[in-house]
Recover the amino acids of this structure.
């Protein structure tokens, strides 16, 4: 087996298991009924999970230099499964927020950040390929889990679905721990910090990335409801969106190492605008499903290309800190987008307005990305 393939495979397994966080929209309507809460309040559970995920991505990377990879993968899987079991036992919105939002979201962030960093270290000559595969697996996890979860929720309620998901994540996480092995991360260990110029560049990346992912996080958090509102097959929405999101990540894995980076950073947000406008204007179920799929494809590509861009621009040692700060834009978008869409849906009775606002954000991202540096691929310092 070529060097790096085994740990990369482990990272793909871990990322796929944790990507089931995006299957949340399958639980929204059953839990609304069980707990007697509105769409905005229920959307807050998902947003809190994304916010906690973001915080751990920001602060967790030093841990990877001090603990063996297998230990980190195990902690992430056990923590994620534990949070889902807490959520399954919750009898109130607060309990759901603590279990799914705080515990599951935090453990998710630990595992996702670890999978991105370890995969890039395992394949330094093909970083775009590795990061694209890991982010594609994250999307594919939601799609594959949705197939099993829909039937389980119908048979045993949302609590049964959460328990099933906990078992799947625990099993996949333990397999991942065996594959990634006991090595520790070597990135970020030289004491180098971000310069003033670095911080300015991170700020520009932060704004462009946050506006780009807003649409995807809004659509993924409400995928089933968006399609159901238009009279489409809501049960298929999460699976289809997850698969197309994964395809976007795989596409980036294939093209990132040999493409002009600025074209990707500018073109992808523009590509999502057409899908967003279709979703905002259609009243046909299959058209809504197509719109959600298009949004998910561009989102999957965006979340794969930005880690590659940061890795390319900042190099091995500055990447963990730079990516951690930039990733807070993802958490901000995850906090604003799903909650905002839920509240606007309650106010207007439609997802049209939040999807239109997301299209405006995508145009803003593309315009900001025009000024980002790219240049030739830089060696790792």
């Amino acid at each position: 087996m070529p060097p790096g393939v085994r740990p990369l495979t482990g990272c793909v397994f871990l990322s796929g298991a944790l990507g089931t966080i995006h299957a949340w929209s399958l639980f929204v309507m059953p839990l609304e009924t069980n707990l007697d809460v509105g769409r905005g309040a229920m959307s807050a559970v998902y947003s809190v999970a994304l916010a906690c995920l973001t915080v751990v991505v920001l602060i967790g990377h030093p841990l990877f230099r001090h603990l063996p990879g297998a230990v980190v993968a195990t902690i992430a899987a056990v923590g994620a499964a534990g949070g889902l079991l807490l959520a399954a036992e919750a009898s109130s919105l607060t309990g759901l927020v603590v279990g799914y939002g705080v515990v599951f979201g935090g453990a998710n962030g630990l595992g996702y950040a670890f999978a991105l960093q370890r995969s890039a270290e395992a394949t330094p000559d093909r970083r775009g390929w590795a990061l694209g595969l890991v982010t594609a697996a994250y999307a594919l996890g939601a799609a594959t889990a949705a197939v099993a979860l829909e039937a389980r929720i119908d048979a045993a309620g949302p609590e049964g679905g959460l328990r099933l998901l906990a078992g799947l994540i625990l099993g996949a996480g333990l397999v991942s721990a065996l594959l990634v092995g006991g090595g520790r991360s070597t990135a970020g260990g030289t004491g180098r910090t971000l310069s003033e110029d670095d911080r300015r560049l991170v700020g520009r990346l932060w704004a462009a990335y946050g506006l780009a992912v807003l649409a995807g996080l809004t659509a993924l958090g409400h995928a089933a409801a968006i399609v159901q509102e238009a009279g489409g097959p809501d049960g298929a929405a999460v699976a289809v969106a997850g698969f197309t999101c994964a395809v976007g990540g795989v596409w980036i894995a294939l093209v990132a190492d040999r493409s002009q980076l600025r074209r990707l950073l500018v073109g992808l947000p523009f590509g999502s605008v057409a899908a967003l406008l279709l979703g905002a204007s259609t009243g046909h179920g299959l058209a809504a499903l197509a719109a959600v799929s298009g949004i998910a494809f561009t989102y999957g590509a965006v979340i794969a290309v930005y880690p590659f861009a940061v890795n390319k621009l900042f190099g091995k040692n500055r990447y963990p800190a730079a990516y951690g700060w930039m990733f807070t834009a993802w958490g901000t978008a995850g906090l604003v987008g799903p909650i905002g869409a839920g509240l606007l849906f309650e106010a207007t009775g439609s997802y049209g307005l939040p999807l239109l606002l997301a299209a405006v954000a995508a145009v803003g991202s593309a315009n900001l990305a025009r000024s980002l540096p790219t240049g030739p691929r830089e060696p790792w310092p």
In short: Residues 5-185+192-369 form a domain with the Growth Hormone; Chain: A; fold (CATH 1.20.1250.20). Confidence is low (pLDDT under 50) at residues 375-381. The first helix runs from residue 5 to 18. The radius of gyration is 19 Å.
